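Figure caption, in words: inputs first, then the predicted bound structure.
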Amino acid sequence: MSVKMTVPARSDLLEIYDRLVRKNGRRNWWPVKYGKYGTARADTGGFEIVAGAILVQNTTWKNAERALGNMHTAGIWGYRAVHEIPETALVETIRSSGYYNTKTKKLKAFAEVIVKEYAGSDANLFELELADLRHRLLDIYGIGEETADDIILYAAKKPSFVIDAYTRRLVDRLGWHVDGSRYSDYQRLFSSRLEPDLELWGELHAQIDGHAVRVCHKLDPLCHGCVLLDLCPTGRLNTGQ
Ligand code: SF4
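Bound structure (iron/sulfur cluster present):
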């Protein structure tokens, strides 16, 4: 049996948000553990978010976090440090994040742009208007739409809603109609209904991710105990309600 599609209203999005926050508490993403003053070699506070957004590609946050911790311990902290360190040393440091050869190249590509074009400070890059900033980020090796929007929303503090596999899964299971299947189509579902509020967009993305990791699993979602069950046609099918 297929799920009946509906066109969600702004209130539906906010209902999901409220329920998840009530259930789980605020997550206050993006988690910044070391920050600007972690070591004398740090360049800017955004570095940790940028590096984390690259390291988390195709892996769990836990693995990315371990790699970040290793970078910090090794003193490879900040764009200049990443730019200067030999590739082989960085590869060893971020091994826990998987795809470490590719991610090393991505981290170094980003660092090179900041060092060579923006005087070593991501604040200079983040000054660009949102559309120009997104365009510039997407031009950097290894930065796709999701990573770009992570960086824009959480590091540059500009409203660009982040879509990931977890968000697509939840939207599809809730039976929300999306005008197409591209990243931008899913993004528009949120950005056209919710005012560009950094805190709301950042927290909603974080809540959806947490919900997917803990409850709305790819296989065998835990629908019986889910706070969204009465709103979710997939959950009702799964539970026979
Ligand atoms: S009811 Fe099930 S499918 Fe629906 S959101 Fe909850 S866990 Fe996911």
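Residues 38-43 have pLDDT under 50 and may be disordered.
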